[in-house]
TrEMBL record:
Identification of the protein by name: Aspartate kinase
Domain of life, per lineage: Bacteria
UniProt keyword list: Amino-acid biosynthesis, ATP-binding, Kinase, Lysine biosynthesis, Metal-binding, Methionine biosynthesis, Multifunctional enzyme, NAD, NADP, Nucleotide-binding, Oxidoreductase, Sodium, Threonine biosynthesis, Transferase
Biological role: Bifunctional aspartate kinase and homoserine dehydrogenase that catalyzes the first and the third steps toward the synthesis of lysine, methionine and threonine from aspartate.
SUPFAM superfamilies found in the cross-reference section: ACT-like (SSF55021), Carbamate kinase-like (SSF53633), Glyceraldehyde-3-phosphate dehydrogenase-like, C-terminal domain (SSF55347), NAD(P)-binding Rossmann-fold domains (SSF51735)
Family, per entry: In the C-terminal section; belongs to the homoserine dehydrogenase family. In the N-terminal section; belongs to the aspartokinase family.
Organism: Flavihumibacter solisilvae
Residue span, ACT domain: 400-478
Alphabetical list of PANTHER family matching this protein: HOMOSERINE DEHYDROGENASE, PTHR43070
């Protein structure tokens, strides 16, 4: 014999019931079947509402009873041919009249009891099971209706009665003896106590009814037919890539259902588990789907984690105090105080110091718990041996479930590492010695992020999703977006990275799309972005709380550089080609570095020196491996190198500078390049990376630019350079007369840095440096005579964007 249970949505309409008839008809051709049905979807709530309206003296309950009646009569009319309808129509009408009578009674009394409520809601399953039995019979499927109230015997705890299995099993055996049809239909959820008074088995209790029946008749299997295709690896409303678990053990299923996986009512497993009856979760609306089988063994598929679940609305209660250490009985008194007020403890942790004990309870019980515990420990609290109970709310539990976790080291390491890297603060941890469940208590606002992270870590070997927020979509930012668009598929296939640009901002507006902005049409989409500034953009980023988030600064804005701390504090990685942060006062540079360590996230700015050249990375590799820097000599301005490589007096100096700007080598404000400030910033950043506390004021700048060029606007700057052409020409001629080239050189030696224009003679390391190239020469303990040389294009949108891209990838691998 098989037992099948159909839930409220599976029997919610006449059409759905016809589908149930098809499914069951096929089954009974093979073996006899008991089906357990819920009330038509929504009926239980509707009945409860009638009761509370009536209890509140509101006559609207009559109208609601009317709707319930009409719905069921309509179902009879749709499912049963006209000539056979009358007896079922009058049976339904009679039961609905009883509902109304009951509500009339409640209305007169002005109150409901748990017992009356059980009676009231029982009509949902009673009517549905009778209508469905008649529907089978109308389709010529012989079916017997069994009254669950006569079969399932419970105590008198209305609303959540406890089953007397011995008596129940006996009743089933008796009933089976006289069974003459291949099909039995039973109402779920309802039962009765020893005096025959109607009781219920708790919300969701129809699953339980089916399990009780399956155990009583020793069914070959129990099938729970619902509106999803099985138990999922995580809640699909939160995790897009959640998938059906093909097979799961009883223990794992109990853990997952306890932790909020709504597919199965938690107590359902118990009756069938001892008899090793397999339980299938199947989808009434997609009967061809394989579903999930819940069975005795935990199957091995190489993944020790079977699913991820969560419980929301948790409060953490901490009892702390020096007076607790080594004194037996504190835990007992705590739990007794909670139990005396019917407060269910969901999670317990206690540090081995015994200085505190911490329990998780439903947040709705937190205030009651505080009063109870503070009262229980009043003597110790008054003596300051114990602190008043500390209550923290807005918390949730996320849990990994899997029987094989116990034999796999490193699962919790991976779990907490992944949460930590993403700024999810773990408030408490619990892992039973069965190691079937690892639970972490976190802020409720982090749950979606945490579940997605854990799902990615344990189930999505296919890819890791990276959420990018890019500020600055000009010369370099625009090119970065092109490169990202071009590489997206490659990264997915070869690095299993799904790089999604989720946010874009310029100085006036920003655009956010959590599904990922289309990188081929971002410009048009930006026009429809919201008006905002860096504060609103970064607030929005933080509020969204997405996992694996990288903020990319491709502006030259101080305001944007000031936003990094609040992002790093949320463990959001920062990648910047904007040099302002690292060349601000040393204290700010240090603060950012410290925050990146403290919050375990990346702060990367390789492109601050040498654009796409690996300058900072190389320097750090040398230092980390124990080398010591003696000196740095470098040409660090792509713009100035380009200008002096292309200026020979045949066209105005200003025109060559303009060309450098047009080709994208200069800063947004080219005066920073021509004045040498950009180079000062770069050599200072390199010196700081070696550990030197250098400030801009202590760098000497032998500038070649007449001071008058720095007055006024950028247009004024170009005009003034035209006027100063003779000055530039004379510098060039002097160098040429010596057979030298002009190079704007930065040096760092013995803690001192300087920048300035120099005549470089043939044979010098810096002489053969063409186009917009940069060169950096490191002399170190290991490179004392011949320096380590890094050379190549040091400016331009393409190379800079690729350097930023590389930093983004580094940040994602953190
Ligand atoms: N060019 C190169 O070779 C290299 C450049 N860099 C650095 O790259 C950075 C970008 O340079 P580049 O692309 O040429 O600059 P652009 O002027 O072309 O683009 C700057 C972008 O930043 C945006 N922006 C400016 N202020 C803000 C703000 N407060 N909030 C949000 N967005 C803002 C601008 O928006 P809007 O249009 O609205 O003003 C624009 O989209 C600079 O810091 C530069 O030092 C680093 C290494 C090499
Ligand atoms: N404007 C800069 C670009 C890179 O930082 C330069 O010219 O070097």
């Amino acid at each position: 014999m098989q037992v099948l249970k159909f839930g409220g949505t599976s029997v919610g309409t006449a059409e759905a019931i016809l589908r149930v008839i098809d499914i069951v008809s096929e089954k009974i051709s093979k073996e006899p079947v008991i089906i357990v049905v819920s009330a038509f979807g929504g009926t239980t709530d509707a009945l409860l509402q009638c009761g509370s309206l009536a209890a509140g003296g509101n006559e609207l309950y009559k109208e609601h009873v009317g709707h319930i009646t009409t719905r069921h009569l309509d179902a009879v009319r749709q499912l049963i041919p006209v000539q056979q309808q009358s007896s079922m129509l009058s049976a339904v009408k009679k039961l609905c009249n009883e509902v109304e009578d009951l509500c009339n009674g409640i209305f007169l009394l002005g109150e409901t009891t748990a017992r009356t409520k059980d009676k009231l809601v029982s009509y949902g399953e009673l009517i549905s099971s009778l209508v469905i039995t008649a529907a089978f019979q109308a389709k010529s499927v012989p079916a017997t209706w069994w009254d669950s109230r006569k079969l399932i015997r419970t105590n008198g705890e209305f609303g959540n009665a406890t089953v007397d299995f011995a008596l129940t099993n006996e009743q089933f055996s008796l009933e089976l003896q006289s069974l003459s049809t291949p099909l039995v239909v039973m109402p779920g959820f309802i039962a009765s106590d020893t005096e025959g008074i109607t009781t219920t088995l708790g919300r969701g209790g129809s699953d339980y009814t089916a399990a009780i029946a399956a155990a009583a008749v020793k069914a070959s299997s129990l099938e729970i037919w619902t509106d999803v295709s099985g138990m999922m690896t995580a809640d699909p409303r939160w995790v897009l890539n959640a998938r059906v678990i093909p097979a799961i053990s009883y223990q794992e299923a109990m853990e997952l259902s306890h932790f909020g996986a709504k597919v199965i009512y938690p107590p359902t497993i118990q009756p069938v588990m001892n008899l090793h009856i397999p339980v299938w979760i199947k989808n009434t609306f997609a009967p061809g789907d394989a579903g999930t089988v819940i069975q005795n063994e935990s199957y091995r598929n190489g993944n020790p984690v079977r699913g991820i679940s969560s419980i929301s609305n948790l409060a953490l209660l901490s009892l702390e105090g020096s007076g607790m250490v080594g004194v037996p009985g504190f835990s007992r008194r705590l739990f007794e105080a909670l139990a005396a007020h019917q407060i269910n403890v969901i999670l317990i942790t206690q540090g081995s110091s015994e200085h505190s004990i911490c329990v998780g309870v439903d947040a709705t019980a937190a205030d009651k718990a505080k009063m109870a515990v503070d009262a229980a420990f009043a003597p110790e609290i008054s003596l300051r041996k114990v602190e008043p109970l500390i209550v923290e709310k807005d918390l949730s539990i996320v849990a990994l479930v899997g029987e094989q976790m116990k034999s796999h080291p490193g699962i919790s390491g991976k779990m907490f590492g992944s949460l930590g890297r993403n700024g999810v603060n773990v408030r408490a941890i619990a892992q039973g010695s069965s190691e079937r469940n690892i639970s972490a208590v976190i802020a409720t606002r982090d749950v979606r992020k945490a579940i997605n992270l854990l799902h990615e870590e344990f189930f999505e070997k296919t890819y890791k999703q990276i959420n990018l927020f890019i500020t600055g979509v000009g010369n370099v930012g625009g090119r970065l977006l092109q490169q990202l668009a071009q590489q997206q598929q490659f990264l997915l296939q070869h690095m299993r990275l799904q790089l999604r640009v989720v946010g874009l901002a310029n100085s006036k507006r920003y655009l956010i799309n959590e599904e990922g902005i289309d990188l081929l049409s971002w410009k048009a989409a930006m026009d429809h972005g919201v008006e905002g500034n860096i504060t609103s953009f970064t607030d929005d980023i933080i509020q969204r709380n997405l996992r694996n988030t990288v903020f990319v600064d491709v502006t030259a804005s101080e305001e944007v550089a000031r936003a990094y701390p609040k992002l790093l504090e949320k463990s959001i990685a920062v990648v910047a080609c904007n040099k302002i942060a690292c060349s601000s006062p040393y204290s700010y540079y240090r603060e950012l570095k410290n925050k990146s360590h403290e919050f375990n996230t990346s702060f990367l700015f390789e492109t601050n020196v040498g654009a796409g050249l690996p300058v900072i990375g190389t320097l750090n590799d040398l230092l980390k491996s124990g080398d010591r820097i003696h000196s740095i000599e470098a040409v660090l301005s792509g713009t100035l190198n380009f200008v002096f490589n292309n200026y020979d007096g045949s066209r105005p100096f200003a025109e060559v500078v303009r060309q450098a700007q047009d080709e994208g080598y200069t800063e947004p404000d080219p005066r920073l390049d021509l004045s040498g400030v950009d180079v000062m910033r770069k050599i200072m950043i390199l010196a700081r990376e070696t550990g030197e506390h250098l400030e801009m004021e202590s760098i000497s700048n032998n500038s070649f630019l007449p001071a008058s060029c720095m007055n006024g606007s950028v247009d004024d700057f170009y005009n003034e350079m035209l006027k100063q052409e003779a000055h530039f020409r004379s510098i060039f001629d002097a160098a040429a007369a010596n057979g030298c080239k002009l190079k704007f050189v930065a040096t760092y030696n013995e803690g001192k840095a300087s920048v300035g224009l120099q005549q470089i003679a043939p044979g010098h390391d810096l002489y053969h440096l063409y186009g917009k190239d940069n060169i950096v020469l490191f002399k170190t303990d290991r490179y004392p005579l011949q320096p380590l040389v890094i050379k190549g294009a040091g400016a331009g949108a393409d190379v800079t964007a690729s350097g930023v891209f590389a930093d983004i990838l580094r940040a994602t691998l953190n």
